[in-house]
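Bumping my old thread because nobody answered last time. Still need a sequence for this structure:
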């Protein structure tokens, strides 16, 4: 999720062509990418990934959602989405409806709000209480930004652990959503490993944005298995072929990421929520892409 509003300002840096190399898993196919090849693992597991419910991050709909939240939600329900993940905009988490009214509307169209991205620095205790009142399971930090020092990253993990305590006190959970920057080597470490190893598993879960892991030059499967049962939510967002652009998301199934393999590993390692997200739309509207992505996800039913 790209942070380009008040709480969603994105500043992730560019990455090299070689950063898209994914370590080998079973048989492989390759996609040409300039002078490099993006290695995409092929499905070799006999038991395939299956899911009965999937959701969408509402930030995918951006301006359309801001203009008419109710109509967009109704459209998403008609496409087959049974879950949503919210985000905090100018009208707050509940988009001018209040948490109870928002919940009532979602119930009426058959959608469950399982989580929300929010600003963790302002009124977080109030947000946790309101989220708990209407049955959300998670509040999520969508962006923390690159830190300048190791001590800065330590302050981040302390903040996350504290947010986890607040959520736990309200009967819900806290999670962190990654971007590419945390997988870049910094001061002799990988910041994302530092985050994983310095957040309390009883207080902090993690939402893997698979696109940003790949864009950061890391292997989603390696992280899913190394930190088994720590990633409970994921963003399912594909990456265009033959580009070095960091903003290169595309409709699911049209890019280089092998979701059948990755999501099977995710399911085997504690993944609970599968949430579609897309940030770039070439030749289609966000709603059209949301429908196409729902059609893709139904293949796993």
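Sorry it took so long. Here it is:
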């Amino acid at each position: 999720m790209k942070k380009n509003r008040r709480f969603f300002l994105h500043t992730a840096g560019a990455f090299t062509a070689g950063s898209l190399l994914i370590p080998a898993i079973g048989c492989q196919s390759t996609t040409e990418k300039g002078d490099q090849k993006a290695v995409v693992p092929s499905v070799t597991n006999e038991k395939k990934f299956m899911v009965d419910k999937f959701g969408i991050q509402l930030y995918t709909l951006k301006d359309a959602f801001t203009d008419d939240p109710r109509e967009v939600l109704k459209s998403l329900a008609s496409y087959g989405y049974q879950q949503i993940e919210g985000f905090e905009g100018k009208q707050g988490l509940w988009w001018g409806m209040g948490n109870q009214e928002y919940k009532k509307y979602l119930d009426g169209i058959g959608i469950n709000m399982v989580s929300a991205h929010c600003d963790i620095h302002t009124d977080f205790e109030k947000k946790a209480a309101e989220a708990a009142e209407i049955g959300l399971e998670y509040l999520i930090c969508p962006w923390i930004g690159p830190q300048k020092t190791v001590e800065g990253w330590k302050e981040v993990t302390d903040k996350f652990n504290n947010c986890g305590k607040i959520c736990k006190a309200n009967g819900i959970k806290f999670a962190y959503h990654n971007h590419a920057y945390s997988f870049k080597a910094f001061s002799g470490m990988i910041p994302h490993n530092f985050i994983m190893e310095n957040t309390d598993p009883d207080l902090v879960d993690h939402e893997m944005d698979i696109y940003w892991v790949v864009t950061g030059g890391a292997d989603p499967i390696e992280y899913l298995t190394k930190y088994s049962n720590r990633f409970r939510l994921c963003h399912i967002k594909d990456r265009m072929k033959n580009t070095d652009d960091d903003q290169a998301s595309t409709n699911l199934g049209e890019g280089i990421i092998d979701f059948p393999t990755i999501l099977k590993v995710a399911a085997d390692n504690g993944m609970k929520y599968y949430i579609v997200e897309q940030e770039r739309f070439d030749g289609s509207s966000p709603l059209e892409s949301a429908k196409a992505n729902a059609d893709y996800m139904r293949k796993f039913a």
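The chain has one domain: 17-42+52-300. Let me know if any region looks off to you.
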